[in-house]
Design a protein that fits this description.
The chain is mainly beta. It contains one helix and seven strands. It has a single domain, classed as SH3 type barrels. The strands form two sheets. The protein has a five-stranded antiparallel sheet with strand order 4-3-2-1-5, with no helix packed on it. It has a two-stranded antiparallel sheet with strand order 6-7. Pfam families: YccV-like. This is Heat shock protein HspQ. It comes from Brevundimonas subvibrioides (strain ATCC 15264 / DSM 4735 / LMG 14903 / NBRC 16000 / CB 81).
């Protein structure tokens, strides 16, 4: 029997990391862990993983995080389509990345 996974968070949604206390916007979603196979990965790869543009004090940084460590941030509204167009580039597959970073 095949298990179907549904992502809890969508593109453009603002989330908060439960352990590292940063906020960010979801820019890409993988149904399961799709990080480098040559690096030690997380224990629970069978859950959605998100690329999150995190908001730091001086700049943003990209994080790859498991759904289990993220939570909805009710204090911040999701980005509008216009905001997303201003801050992200998008490829033909719908993957988003910060404008300053190429999509891989």
């Amino acid at each position: 029997m095949t298990q179907s996974l549904t992502a809890k968070f969508g593109l453009g949604q603002i989330v908060r990391h439960r352990e590292d206390s940063f906020r960010g916007v979801v820019v890409d979603v993988d149904a399961t862990y799709a990080g480098p196979s040559n690096e030690p990965g997380p224990d629970h790869r069978d859950q959605p993983f998100y690329r999150v543009l995190a908001m730091g004090e001086d700049t943003g940084f990209l994080v790859y995080a498991a759904e289990a460590v993220l939570e909805h941030d009710p204090d911040v509204a999701p980005l509008t389509d216009a905001d997303q167009a201003q801050w992200f580039t998008m490829d033909d597959a719908g993957h988003r990345a910060p404008r300053a970073q190429p999509i891989h």
